[in-house]
Amino acid sequence: MPPRTILPICWVLATVVAVGMAAAWMTVGGHREMLLTGEMSGAHHQIGLACETCHAAPAFSGAAAARKALNRTCRNCHGDELQAADDSHPRKKFRNPRMAAYWEVLDARFCTTCHVEHRPETTRKGAVTVAADFCVACHAEGDQDIRTARPSHAGLAFDTCASAGCHNYHDNRALYADFLVKHADQPWLDPVPVHALSARHRTPGPPQTGSLGRSDALAPAAVLADATVLDHWAGSGHAAAGINCTGCHAPDVASGAPLAEIGAGWTAVPPLTVCRDCHRAESETFALGRHGMRQHPRIAPPRDPAATRIGAVLPEAVTAWLADPPRAVHMTVGEARLPMRSDPSDLSLDCGTCHRPHTVDTGRASVEACVSCHDDTHSRSYAGSPHHVLWQAEQGGKAAPGTGVSCATCHMPKVERRGKIFTSHNQNDRLRPNEKMIRPVCLDCHGLGFAMDALADADLVTGNFRGKPAAHVESIEWALRHAASARNTEH
Amino acid sequence: MKRKSGFLTTLAAGTAAATIVAANAIADGVPYRDVADMLYRVMSADREVYTRMVVQRLTVDHPVITVSEHFQDDLALPLPSQMFRFGAETVADGTGDFSYSLLSLHPINKKNGPGTGLEKEGLEYVADHPGRNFYGEEELGGEDYFAAVYPDFAVAQACVMCHNNHPDSPRTDFQVGDVMGGIVVRIPMD
Question: For the whole model, what pTM was predicted?
Fold first, then answer.
């Protein structure tokens, strides 16, 4: 066969094989890095290769079906958060056909109208991929023209609506007009600045019954020989709560079992599931935040090629070759996109990374653990800041519980659910936009006006709130003026 | 919270039943107008019952709780109009078989004013002809809809007080029995 015949045949064959491999990787299993069409935004890069988490439409379904499926999967992970935020622009509000005119300009029925993944070149803060003046699409004409409805807004540019600390598209729980009016007269600092839930949580209760001491420890002889570990456990909250060594290191061994049985069932490093058994709320919220999102229950598991229709007819060796590569269960410091210290780059994030279950000092996870990894200016500026000084005073027993402000006070605050106080480990729940922090955190100690100004002052945030805000958000004055003007019109 | 869950459960059950009835009725060839009328009767009954037996009774007749637009922050009852809208949004979230809205020519929130030509015509008609309904067809988003507009009356003193006293209300002289707005029901005609 002449070369000019062979070459095209080889080219066609190579193309068919390459396309087949790409299709197999896409739909059956295998390495998919090369299929990523662009760097992913925010925290999504952590789950970048769990494509089915977001792309849930059947292969080769149409664009409309793919968009609907994407919308559904966005809500799988973010739906509860939006509901809790009392979403100002919920999808259901825009599904009514009377909103059809708005579908043409900014289709708020679909998350992907404003949040398109794999577009690093157009992605802004909050994974937003529409222009900063997106509010103009719906609030610049007719009854919705905010410039005529609110005289105070007449000269404002639309790119300042969501960037000046006044409004957010989804979460306006601390920014709506009646809330501003209600909190208009607050001083910058409460006369008794205390984070109430932290105070309740950190106020020592009565001695617990069933507390354990050094002599109660149940562990193999080699472990008991380590006096430091033993001392730490005996002074820990676990011992105070009656949790013996076996509770975590040999959870499957029956109570009262002989030492030999304890030794046989002993695990030196207990898995996360052991922590989860008792600290359920903390564990659940950990998987909702950036530190633990790889453990979110809605993340698609690795694919099993043998379970697919194509895989069922392929030889086992082929399905094994096609299997998805193993995925890391934990995020590592080195994978983070925020500025991090380089020395612990391979440190993976699980409970023990921040908490030392054997130590008495539970405060370590509130500050020292954070700054041992985070190396941005805000984190570095914490030491010596007014909040830090208060934290040190509380930790040193010189100030009341709840008066100190640690990293966790703001980013992983105490929350109350059904009468129980626990630490929310979803740090994203109080960030981005940072006004989400106002109600659950700032307002316990500061007035609304001061909190809004402080969070709108980027330099003040970066410097970890040393000094007073240089920025001023006029929302409260405008809301008061509007309320007064409405009252005057009425009378 | 428990109270709110109870209301929403009842509302959801009513909505589900109405959706099934509506879908079956259309499938059986019942005219759009009759389907819209049936849906309206369910909505109107629920709305009136909530207003009279919950809001009016517990906030005006025997005041044990307040009613507030910011009912979550204020630990209060949702406004009747909010209750109605929550139902409408729950339906919109779950089906495209029909939709409904509570609108007015004098809305406290401007987004609840007439947004289409038919809505404006219908709201004016029911305001000018108390007790009569308005029916029509319109195209929205490339789809044809049958639309019906029904009058929404001030059934209790609570409705009148709230609308007449709200700082954003464009009309402050409502009386019990007045047409305050209209309920718009839409059914796609495909």
Answer: 0.89
